[in-house]
Design brief:
This protein is α+β, with helices and mostly antiparallel strands. 17% of the residues lie in helices and 27% in strands. The chain contains 5 helices and 8 strands; from the N terminus they run H-H-E-E-E-E-E-H-H-H-E-E-E. The longest helix has 8 residues. It is globular and about 40 Å long. The structure holds a DNA duplex.
DNA sequence: TGCCCGATTAACT
DNA sequence: GTTAATCGGGCAA
């Protein structure tokens, strides 16, 4: 039986938590799957929202670990983070992609995809391939900002086998773009973008 | 106050 | 390859 991720799991360096999340299962209201791609954002990192201090938007980043931080991206999409490190560190892991395993019909519906097998077969790969798509598929918005990860409606389960974790530079940023703080499941077809060899 | 930019995505050429 | 959609934050004035 998979072990539930506790608050202690998140109360560590963001650079330890991020790779350990690869292969873990994430469910929101029973819908979700295996985490295959994340990125680490440390408060000393110019690309982190917490870099310039607390604001109303990033307030939960300055709170205790093991909580969600949801923000609006480009005025359109929602992005989900897990707050890590001891309280006040204001560091978090961005969840960038999951392999959908539970609640496929609900995810396809929210993402506006056909339920017919002939069409969705090739589309399931894109259901949760990217932080914005993932939140749309799971129905996560700012209404879920600041929620505990070790209690319903969330359920997080540790991976049950060893995962081959790929590392590379983060996507879509301009500040500290050279830092290799993107982690993913090597070879997964559910990544937002493959890792270079 | 106003202007520019961004941890994105889909729909274009 | 480019662009539009759209809003919070940072910073100049």
């Amino acid at each position: 039986m998979p072990k539930r991720l506790t608050r202690a799991f998140f109360n560590r360096s963001v650079h330890e938590v991020a790779p350990d999340l690869i292969g873990a299962t994430m469910l929101f209201k029973g819908v979700g799957g295996r985490i295959v791609e994340v990125e680490a954002y440390h408060h000393t990192d110019p690309a982190a929202h917490s870099f310039r201090g607390p604001t109303r938007r990033n307030a939960v980043m300055f709170g205790p670990p093991g909580y969600t931080y949801v923000y609006r991206s480009y005025g359109i999409h929602w992005c989900l983070n897990f707050v890590c490190e001891p309280e006040g560190s204001a560091s978090a892991v961005l969840i960038r992609a999951i392999e959908p395993t539970a609640g496929l019909a609900a995810m396809r519906r929210r993402r506006g995809m056909s339920q017919r097998r002939s069409q969705h077969r090739n589309q399931d790969r894109l259901l949760c391939a990217g932080p914005g798509r993932l939140c749309e598929a799971l129905g996560i918005t700012d209404a879920q900002n600041g929620l505990a990860l070790d209690a319903p409606p969330f359920e997080l389960l540790a991976r049950t086998s060893v995962a081959e974790v790929a590392v590379g530079p983060r996507i879509g940023i301009t500040k500290a773009a050279d830092k290799p703080w993107r982690y993913g499941l090597q070879g997964s077809r559910f990544l937002s973008k493959p890792f270079s060899p």
